[in-house]
Design goal:
single chain; alpha/beta; Rossmann fold; eight-stranded mixed sheet; 15 helices; 33% helix
Protein backbone atom coordinates (compact mmCIF):
# COMPACT_ATOMS: atom_id res chain seq x y z
CA UNK A 1 0.00 0.00 0.00
CA UNK A 2 1.41 3.38 -0.97
CA UNK A 3 2.34 5.82 1.80
CA UNK A 4 0.06 8.83 2.21
CA UNK A 5 1.73 12.08 3.33
CA UNK A 6 0.24 15.54 3.77
CA UNK A 7 2.66 17.11 1.32
CA UNK A 8 1.26 14.92 -1.47
CA UNK A 9 -2.27 16.28 -1.03
CA UNK A 10 -3.86 18.93 -3.21
CA UNK A 11 -2.92 22.50 -2.19
CA UNK A 12 -6.57 23.44 -1.51
CA UNK A 13 -6.96 20.46 0.82
CA UNK A 14 -3.69 21.29 2.54
CA UNK A 15 -4.79 24.88 3.19
CA UNK A 16 -8.01 23.69 4.80
CA UNK A 17 -6.16 21.06 6.80
CA UNK A 18 -3.68 23.66 8.03
CA UNK A 19 -6.46 26.01 9.12
CA UNK A 20 -8.37 23.31 10.97
CA UNK A 21 -5.23 21.87 12.56
CA UNK A 22 -4.35 25.30 13.98
CA UNK A 23 -7.88 25.71 15.34
CA UNK A 24 -7.66 22.30 17.01
CA UNK A 25 -4.10 22.71 18.28
CA UNK A 26 -2.79 19.59 16.50
CA UNK A 27 -0.55 18.82 13.53
CA UNK A 28 -1.83 18.61 9.98
CA UNK A 29 -1.07 14.89 9.97
CA UNK A 30 -3.13 14.36 13.14
CA UNK A 31 -6.00 16.38 11.66
CA UNK A 32 -5.95 14.19 8.54
CA UNK A 33 -5.92 11.04 10.67
CA UNK A 34 -8.90 12.29 12.69
CA UNK A 35 -10.87 13.09 9.56
CA UNK A 36 -10.11 9.67 8.09
CA UNK A 37 -11.22 8.02 11.34
CA UNK A 38 -14.47 10.02 11.33
CA UNK A 39 -15.10 8.97 7.73
CA UNK A 40 -14.51 5.30 8.53
CA UNK A 41 -16.76 5.48 11.60
CA UNK A 42 -19.50 7.18 9.60
CA UNK A 43 -19.31 4.62 6.80
CA UNK A 44 -19.56 1.76 9.29
CA UNK A 45 -22.91 3.12 10.50
CA UNK A 46 -24.55 3.25 7.07
CA UNK A 47 -24.48 1.31 3.79
CA UNK A 48 -21.65 2.48 1.59
CA UNK A 49 -21.28 2.90 -2.13
CA UNK A 50 -18.15 3.24 -4.12
CA UNK A 51 -18.60 6.99 -4.04
CA UNK A 52 -18.65 7.09 -0.24
CA UNK A 53 -14.93 6.44 0.14
CA UNK A 54 -13.51 8.34 -2.79
CA UNK A 55 -12.82 11.54 -0.84
CA UNK A 56 -12.53 12.55 2.81
CA UNK A 57 -14.38 15.79 3.47
CA UNK A 58 -12.31 18.62 4.90
CA UNK A 59 -15.27 20.95 5.41
CA UNK A 60 -15.17 23.16 8.52
CA UNK A 61 -16.40 21.39 11.64
CA UNK A 62 -19.14 22.50 13.94
CA UNK A 63 -18.35 23.02 17.60
CA UNK A 64 -20.04 19.75 18.46
CA UNK A 65 -17.44 17.74 16.50
CA UNK A 66 -14.56 15.84 18.03
CA UNK A 67 -13.16 17.56 21.13
CA UNK A 68 -9.44 17.52 21.82
CA UNK A 69 -7.33 18.57 24.79
CA UNK A 70 -5.95 22.08 24.69
CA UNK A 71 -2.60 22.58 23.03
CA UNK A 72 -0.71 23.31 26.22
CA UNK A 73 -0.61 24.59 29.76
CA UNK A 74 -1.06 28.31 30.31
CA UNK A 75 1.94 30.43 31.29
CA UNK A 76 2.19 31.23 34.93
CA UNK A 77 1.16 34.86 34.92
CA UNK A 78 -0.41 34.70 31.47
CA UNK A 79 -4.20 34.92 31.39
CA UNK A 80 -6.01 32.35 29.28
CA UNK A 81 -8.08 33.14 26.24
CA UNK A 82 -5.90 35.03 23.72
CA UNK A 83 -4.63 32.84 20.90
CA UNK A 84 -2.23 35.46 19.60
CA UNK A 85 -0.58 33.04 17.15
CA UNK A 86 -3.72 31.30 15.92
CA UNK A 87 -3.19 29.89 12.44
CA UNK A 88 0.53 30.70 12.42
CA UNK A 89 3.06 28.07 11.38
CA UNK A 90 6.40 28.00 13.19
CA UNK A 91 9.41 25.93 12.15
CA UNK A 92 11.67 25.43 15.18
CA UNK A 93 15.29 24.48 14.51
CA UNK A 94 16.92 23.05 17.63
CA UNK A 95 20.68 23.37 17.80
CA UNK A 96 23.11 21.31 19.87
CA UNK A 97 23.66 22.87 23.27
CA UNK A 98 22.62 22.34 26.87
CA UNK A 99 19.94 25.01 26.34
CA UNK A 100 18.17 22.60 23.96
CA UNK A 101 16.08 21.43 26.90
CA UNK A 102 14.40 24.87 26.92
CA UNK A 103 13.12 24.24 23.40
CA UNK A 104 10.67 21.70 24.84
CA UNK A 105 9.04 24.42 26.93
CA UNK A 106 9.17 26.81 23.99
CA UNK A 107 7.12 24.38 21.88
CA UNK A 108 4.43 24.34 24.56
CA UNK A 109 4.40 28.14 24.82
CA UNK A 110 4.01 28.55 21.07
CA UNK A 111 1.27 25.94 20.78
CA UNK A 112 -0.77 27.33 23.65
CA UNK A 113 -0.83 30.63 21.75
CA UNK A 114 -2.42 28.80 18.82
CA UNK A 115 0.62 28.16 16.60
CA UNK A 116 1.37 24.88 14.87
CA UNK A 117 5.01 23.88 15.38
CA UNK A 118 7.23 21.63 13.30
CA UNK A 119 10.77 20.84 14.44
CA UNK A 120 14.16 20.22 12.85
CA UNK A 121 16.90 18.82 15.09
CA UNK A 122 20.61 18.86 14.35
CA UNK A 123 22.72 15.80 15.09
CA UNK A 124 24.23 17.62 18.06
CA UNK A 125 20.78 18.52 19.44
CA UNK A 126 19.91 14.83 19.63
CA UNK A 127 22.71 14.34 22.17
CA UNK A 128 20.82 16.61 24.58
CA UNK A 129 17.14 15.83 23.94
CA UNK A 130 15.41 13.17 21.87
CA UNK A 131 13.22 13.43 18.77
CA UNK A 132 10.65 11.40 20.71
CA UNK A 133 10.27 14.19 23.30
CA UNK A 134 10.10 16.88 20.64
CA UNK A 135 7.59 14.94 18.56
CA UNK A 136 5.37 14.32 21.57
CA UNK A 137 5.11 18.07 22.17
CA UNK A 138 4.75 19.17 18.53
CA UNK A 139 2.38 16.27 17.73
CA UNK A 140 4.22 16.11 14.42
CA UNK A 141 7.06 14.33 12.68
CA UNK A 142 10.53 15.55 13.72
CA UNK A 143 12.94 16.15 10.85
CA UNK A 144 16.59 15.19 11.43
CA UNK A 145 18.18 14.10 8.13
CA UNK A 146 18.87 16.00 4.92
CA UNK A 147 19.10 12.78 2.91
CA UNK A 148 16.09 10.98 4.34
CA UNK A 149 14.54 8.95 1.50
CA UNK A 150 10.94 9.47 2.61
CA UNK A 151 11.18 13.14 3.67
CA UNK A 152 13.18 14.13 0.60
CA UNK A 153 11.10 12.39 -2.06
CA UNK A 154 9.60 15.78 -2.93
CA UNK A 155 12.58 17.93 -1.84
CA UNK A 156 11.34 18.12 1.75
CA UNK A 157 13.91 20.63 3.00
CA UNK A 158 12.56 23.18 0.52
CA UNK A 159 9.01 22.50 1.70
CA UNK A 160 10.10 22.99 5.31
CA UNK A 161 11.81 26.25 4.39
CA UNK A 162 8.74 27.68 2.65
CA UNK A 163 5.73 26.08 4.37
CA UNK A 164 6.01 28.25 7.47
CA UNK A 165 5.41 31.80 8.65
CA UNK A 166 8.57 32.08 10.75
CA UNK A 167 11.69 30.05 11.46
CA UNK A 168 12.96 30.12 15.05
CA UNK A 169 16.41 28.76 15.87
CA UNK A 170 16.67 27.94 19.57
CA UNK A 171 19.27 27.38 20.73
CA UNK A 172 21.25 29.07 17.96
CA UNK A 173 24.77 27.78 18.53
CA UNK A 174 27.97 29.44 17.36
CA UNK A 175 28.22 26.69 14.73
CA UNK A 176 24.75 27.34 13.29
CA UNK A 177 25.35 31.09 13.23
CA UNK A 178 28.65 30.58 11.41
CA UNK A 179 27.07 28.28 8.82
CA UNK A 180 24.23 30.70 8.11
CA UNK A 181 26.52 33.75 7.97
CA UNK A 182 28.79 32.02 5.46
CA UNK A 183 26.19 30.29 3.33
CA UNK A 184 26.98 26.69 4.28
CA UNK A 185 24.24 24.10 3.80
CA UNK A 186 25.73 20.69 4.62
CA UNK A 187 22.97 19.46 6.92
CA UNK A 188 19.19 19.77 7.12
CA UNK A 189 19.09 22.74 9.50
CA UNK A 190 21.55 24.88 7.53
CA UNK A 191 19.99 23.88 4.19
CA UNK A 192 16.55 24.96 5.41
CA UNK A 193 17.92 28.28 6.67
CA UNK A 194 19.64 28.97 3.36
CA UNK A 195 16.58 27.98 1.31
CA UNK A 196 13.98 30.00 3.18
CA UNK A 197 12.42 33.28 2.18
CA UNK A 198 10.59 33.59 5.52
CA UNK A 199 11.62 35.68 8.56
CA UNK A 200 14.21 34.06 10.82
CA UNK A 201 14.59 34.61 14.57
CA UNK A 202 17.75 33.39 16.32
CA UNK A 203 18.04 32.79 20.08
CA UNK A 204 21.80 32.43 20.63
CA UNK A 205 23.15 30.23 23.42
CA UNK A 206 26.83 29.61 24.05
CA UNK A 207 29.67 30.16 26.47
CA UNK A 208 30.37 33.88 27.13
CA UNK A 209 33.86 33.58 25.62
CA UNK A 210 32.40 32.10 22.45
CA UNK A 211 29.78 34.84 22.26
CA UNK A 212 32.44 37.53 22.73
CA UNK A 213 34.82 36.01 20.15
CA UNK A 214 35.50 38.30 17.18
CA UNK A 215 34.38 35.60 14.73
CA UNK A 216 30.99 35.29 16.43
CA UNK A 217 30.65 39.07 16.53
CA UNK A 218 31.40 39.27 12.80
CA UNK A 219 28.86 36.55 12.09
CA UNK A 220 26.19 38.31 14.10
CA UNK A 221 26.84 41.59 12.30
CA UNK A 222 26.57 39.80 8.96
CA UNK A 223 23.33 38.09 9.93
CA UNK A 224 21.78 41.32 11.21
CA UNK A 225 22.72 43.00 7.93
CA UNK A 226 21.00 40.12 6.12
CA UNK A 227 17.79 40.81 8.06
CA UNK A 228 18.03 38.02 10.64
CA UNK A 229 16.38 38.94 13.96
CA UNK A 230 17.85 38.13 17.39
CA UNK A 231 16.42 37.58 20.85
CA UNK A 232 19.06 37.49 23.60
CA UNK A 233 21.37 36.15 24.73
CA UNK A 234 20.89 37.00 28.39
CA UNK A 235 23.45 37.36 31.14
CA UNK A 236 23.68 34.82 33.94
CA UNK A 237 25.19 31.59 35.20
CA UNK A 238 26.35 29.05 32.62
CA UNK A 239 26.07 25.28 32.73
CA UNK A 240 29.83 25.13 33.25
CA UNK A 241 31.01 25.52 36.81
CA UNK A 242 32.16 29.03 37.78
CA UNK A 243 31.20 30.43 34.37
CA UNK A 244 28.91 33.44 34.08
CA UNK A 245 28.26 36.24 31.64
CA UNK A 246 26.40 36.98 28.43
CA UNK A 247 25.46 33.82 26.58
CA UNK A 248 22.37 32.28 28.22
CA UNK A 249 19.55 31.55 25.82
CA UNK A 250 16.53 33.81 26.24
CA UNK A 251 13.75 32.23 28.27
CA UNK A 252 10.94 30.46 26.36
CA UNK A 253 8.41 33.14 27.34
CA UNK A 254 10.71 35.86 26.01
CA UNK A 255 11.12 33.99 22.72
CA UNK A 256 7.36 33.39 22.44
CA UNK A 257 6.73 37.10 23.00
CA UNK A 258 9.31 37.97 20.33
CA UNK A 259 7.54 35.60 17.92
CA UNK A 260 4.23 37.32 18.68
CA UNK A 261 5.78 40.71 17.99
CA UNK A 262 7.38 39.59 14.71
CA UNK A 263 4.15 38.09 13.39
CA UNK A 264 1.93 40.93 14.57
CA UNK A 265 0.83 42.81 11.45
CA UNK A 266 -1.94 44.79 13.14
CA UNK A 267 -2.23 48.60 13.07
CA UNK A 268 0.05 50.68 15.33
CA UNK A 269 -2.10 53.63 16.43
CA UNK A 270 0.20 54.35 19.37
CA UNK A 271 3.41 54.62 17.34
CA UNK A 272 5.43 57.57 18.63
CA UNK A 273 3.62 57.65 21.98
CA UNK A 274 5.41 57.25 25.29
CA UNK A 275 3.30 55.60 27.98
CA UNK A 276 4.19 54.84 31.59
CA UNK A 277 2.65 51.81 33.29
CA UNK A 278 3.01 50.71 36.91
CA UNK A 279 2.40 47.10 37.92
CA UNK A 280 2.63 44.67 40.82
CA UNK A 281 2.78 45.32 44.56
CA UNK A 282 5.24 47.30 46.63
CA UNK A 283 7.13 45.84 49.57
CA UNK A 284 7.53 48.11 52.58
CA UNK A 285 10.23 46.67 54.87
CA UNK A 286 9.67 46.17 58.58
CA UNK A 287 13.07 44.61 59.17
CA UNK A 288 15.55 42.75 56.92
CA UNK A 289 13.22 39.73 56.58
CA UNK A 290 9.66 41.10 56.91
CA UNK A 291 7.62 43.55 54.89
CA UNK A 292 4.10 44.89 54.28
CA UNK A 293 2.64 44.28 50.82
CA UNK A 294 -0.54 43.94 48.77
CA UNK A 295 -1.71 40.72 47.10
CA UNK A 296 -0.89 41.74 43.54
CA UNK A 297 0.60 39.32 41.01
CA UNK A 298 1.28 42.00 38.39
CA UNK A 299 -0.61 40.00 35.74
CA UNK A 300 -3.01 42.79 34.80
CA UNK A 301 -0.40 45.54 34.74
CA UNK A 302 2.06 43.50 32.69
CA UNK A 303 -0.72 42.53 30.26
CA UNK A 304 -1.61 46.21 29.79
CA UNK A 305 2.04 47.13 29.16
CA UNK A 306 2.28 44.35 26.54
CA UNK A 307 -1.01 45.38 24.87
CA UNK A 308 0.12 49.01 24.59
CA UNK A 309 3.45 47.89 23.11
CA UNK A 310 1.61 45.79 20.52
CA UNK A 311 -0.15 48.97 19.39
CA UNK A 312 3.23 50.61 18.81
CA UNK A 313 3.71 52.57 22.04
CA UNK A 314 7.09 53.15 23.67
CA UNK A 315 6.08 51.61 26.98
CA UNK A 316 8.02 52.24 30.18
CA UNK A 317 6.96 49.75 32.85
CA UNK A 318 7.74 50.34 36.52
CA UNK A 319 7.24 46.99 38.22
CA UNK A 320 7.17 46.08 41.88
CA UNK A 321 8.34 42.65 43.08
CA UNK A 322 6.58 40.06 40.89
CA UNK A 323 7.35 36.49 39.82
CA UNK A 324 6.32 36.87 36.17
CA UNK A 325 8.54 37.71 33.20
CA UNK A 326 8.97 41.25 31.89
CA UNK A 327 6.82 41.84 28.79
CA UNK A 328 8.77 41.66 25.54
CA UNK A 329 9.38 44.96 23.80
CA UNK A 330 8.84 46.92 27.00
CA UNK A 331 11.49 48.88 28.89
CA UNK A 332 11.11 47.72 32.50
CA UNK A 333 12.39 49.29 35.70
CA UNK A 334 12.23 47.11 38.83
CA UNK A 335 11.55 48.66 42.22
CA UNK A 336 10.65 47.47 45.72
CA UNK A 337 8.99 50.30 47.65
CA UNK A 338 6.35 52.95 46.97
CA UNK A 339 8.93 55.73 47.21
CA UNK A 340 11.16 54.00 44.67
CA UNK A 341 8.15 53.58 42.36
CA UNK A 342 7.22 57.26 42.65
CA UNK A 343 10.80 58.35 41.92
CA UNK A 344 11.05 56.00 38.92
CA UNK A 345 7.77 57.31 37.46
CA UNK A 346 8.80 60.97 37.89
CA UNK A 347 12.12 60.27 36.12
CA UNK A 348 10.17 58.94 33.12
CA UNK A 349 8.20 62.17 32.62
CA UNK A 350 7.21 63.68 30.26
CA UNK A 351 4.90 61.10 28.71
CA UNK A 352 1.74 61.03 26.61
CA UNK A 353 -0.13 58.81 29.06
CA UNK A 354 0.33 57.03 32.38
CA UNK A 355 -1.58 53.96 33.57
CA UNK A 356 -1.31 53.27 37.30
CA UNK A 357 -2.15 49.59 37.80
CA UNK A 358 0.22 48.84 40.69
CA UNK A 359 -1.23 47.95 44.08
CA UNK A 360 0.88 50.38 46.09
CA UNK A 361 0.95 49.93 49.85
CA UNK A 362 -0.86 52.89 51.45
CA UNK A 363 1.33 52.83 54.55
CA UNK A 364 4.82 51.85 55.56
CA UNK A 365 6.55 51.34 58.91
CA UNK A 366 8.00 54.52 60.38
CA UNK A 367 11.57 53.29 60.14
CA UNK A 368 13.08 49.90 59.21
CA UNK A 369 14.78 47.86 61.93
CA UNK A 370 18.45 47.15 61.19
CA UNK A 371 18.16 43.61 62.55
CA UNK A 372 15.40 41.03 62.58
CA UNK A 373 12.89 41.85 65.31
CA UNK A 374 13.02 38.88 67.68
CA UNK A 375 10.12 37.36 69.53
CA UNK A 376 10.66 37.59 73.28
CA UNK A 377 8.99 35.08 75.59
CA UNK A 378 6.43 36.66 77.86
CA UNK A 379 6.20 39.84 75.86
CA UNK A 380 3.58 40.72 73.29
CA UNK A 381 4.26 41.84 69.72
CA UNK A 382 6.22 45.07 69.36
CA UNK A 383 4.35 48.25 68.47
CA UNK A 384 4.51 49.04 64.78
CA UNK A 385 4.29 52.75 64.02
CA UNK A 386 3.01 53.48 60.49
CA UNK A 387 3.24 56.51 58.21
CA UNK A 388 1.52 57.23 54.90
CA UNK A 389 3.21 56.41 51.62
CA UNK A 390 3.28 58.88 48.71
CA UNK A 391 0.14 58.82 46.55
CA UNK A 392 1.67 58.23 43.11
CA UNK A 393 -1.55 58.57 41.11
CA UNK A 394 -2.51 61.86 42.78
CA UNK A 395 0.99 63.30 42.49
CA UNK A 396 1.15 62.61 38.73
CA UNK A 397 -2.49 63.64 38.25
CA UNK A 398 -1.60 67.11 39.55
CA UNK A 399 2.03 67.22 38.34
CA UNK A 400 3.39 70.17 36.37
CA UNK A 401 4.43 67.60 33.70
CA UNK A 402 1.13 65.74 33.87
CA UNK A 403 0.64 63.36 30.93
CA UNK A 404 -2.27 64.18 28.64
CA UNK A 405 -4.05 61.01 29.78
CA UNK A 406 -3.89 59.67 33.34
CA UNK A 407 -5.57 56.36 34.14
CA UNK A 408 -5.88 54.93 37.64
CA UNK A 409 -7.08 51.62 39.05
CA UNK A 410 -9.39 51.21 42.03
CA UNK A 411 -9.19 47.80 43.68
CA UNK A 412 -12.12 47.70 46.10
CA UNK A 413 -13.99 45.18 48.24
CA UNK A 414 -17.07 47.35 48.89
CA UNK A 415 -18.93 50.33 47.36
CA UNK A 416 -16.96 49.81 44.16
CA UNK A 417 -18.40 52.52 41.91
CA UNK A 418 -18.83 55.09 44.67
CA UNK A 419 -15.20 54.71 45.78
CA UNK A 420 -13.99 54.80 42.18
CA UNK A 421 -15.93 58.02 41.46
CA UNK A 422 -14.47 59.67 44.56
CA UNK A 423 -10.98 58.55 43.54
CA UNK A 424 -11.47 59.98 40.05
CA UNK A 425 -12.28 63.42 41.43
CA UNK A 426 -9.72 63.41 44.21
CA UNK A 427 -6.68 62.22 42.26
CA UNK A 428 -6.96 64.14 39.01
CA UNK A 429 -7.34 61.09 36.75
CA UNK A 430 -9.13 61.05 33.41
CA UNK A 431 -10.75 57.74 34.18
CA UNK A 432 -10.57 55.01 36.78
CA UNK A 433 -10.62 51.29 36.05
CA UNK A 434 -12.60 49.87 38.96
CA UNK A 435 -12.51 46.21 39.90
CA UNK A 436 -13.89 44.20 42.80
CA UNK A 437 -11.01 42.30 44.44
CA UNK A 438 -13.02 40.55 47.15
CA UNK A 439 -11.67 37.08 47.90
CA UNK A 440 -14.69 35.45 46.25
CA UNK A 441 -13.89 37.08 42.87
CA UNK A 442 -10.45 35.47 42.55
CA UNK A 443 -9.16 38.58 40.77
CA UNK A 444 -6.00 38.97 42.87
CA UNK A 445 -3.57 36.48 41.35
CA UNK A 446 -6.20 35.10 38.98
CA UNK A 447 -6.44 35.16 35.19
CA UNK A 448 -9.80 36.93 34.79
CA UNK A 449 -11.18 40.32 35.70
CA UNK A 450 -14.42 42.27 35.57
CA UNK A 451 -13.91 46.03 35.41
CA UNK A 452 -15.91 49.21 35.08
CA UNK A 453 -14.52 52.34 33.41
CA UNK A 454 -15.47 55.34 35.54
CA UNK A 455 -15.09 58.82 34.03
CA UNK A 456 -16.81 62.20 34.13
CA UNK A 457 -19.04 60.92 31.32
CA UNK A 458 -20.36 58.08 33.48
CA UNK A 459 -19.72 54.36 34.00
CA UNK A 460 -19.02 51.76 31.32
CA UNK A 461 -19.32 48.24 32.76
CA UNK A 462 -17.36 45.55 30.92
CA UNK A 463 -18.20 41.84 31.11
CA UNK A 464 -15.88 39.38 32.81
CA UNK A 465 -12.86 38.88 30.55
CA UNK A 466 -9.41 37.36 30.60
CA UNK A 467 -6.83 39.85 31.83
CA UNK A 468 -5.22 39.90 28.37
CA UNK A 469 -8.60 40.81 26.88
CA UNK A 470 -9.12 43.58 29.45
CA UNK A 471 -5.66 44.86 28.55
CA UNK A 472 -6.39 44.83 24.81
CA UNK A 473 -9.65 46.74 25.24
CA UNK A 474 -8.05 49.28 27.56
CA UNK A 475 -5.14 49.80 25.15
CA UNK A 476 -7.62 50.43 22.32
CA UNK A 477 -9.48 52.94 24.51
CA UNK A 478 -6.24 54.77 25.30
CA UNK A 479 -5.34 54.83 21.61
CA UNK A 480 -8.73 56.32 20.80
CA UNK A 481 -8.35 59.02 23.46
CA UNK A 482 -4.88 59.98 22.19
CA UNK A 483 -5.96 60.30 18.56
CA UNK A 484 -6.51 64.03 18.80
CA UNK A 485 -3.23 64.75 20.61
CA UNK A 486 -0.26 65.70 18.45
CA UNK A 487 2.83 63.53 18.82
Amino acid sequence: MASLTVRNLDETVKRELRKRAAESGVSMEQEARDRLAESVNASSRQPSTSADVKQVSIAPKKSADVKRPSAGIQDEGRPAGMMTLSGKRILLIIGGGIAAYKSLDLIRRLRERGASVRAVMTDAAQHFITPLSVGALTADHVFTELFDRQDEQDVGHIRLARDTDLIVVAPATADLMAKLANGLAGDLASAVLLATDRPVLLAPAMNPKMWAHPATRRNRATLEKDGIRFIGPNRGEMAERAEAGEGRMAEPLEIAAAVEALLDTGPKPLAGRRIIVTSGPTHEPIDPVRYIANRSSGKQGHAIAAALARLGADVRLVAGPVSIADPAGVNTTHVETARQMRDAVERLLPADAAVFVAAVADWRPDGEADEKIKKVAGKGPPALSMIENPDILASIGHHRQRPYLVVGFAAETQSLLENAAAKLKRKGADFIVANDVSAATGVMGGDRNRVSIVSKAGVDEWPELGKDEVAARLAALIAERLKTVEV
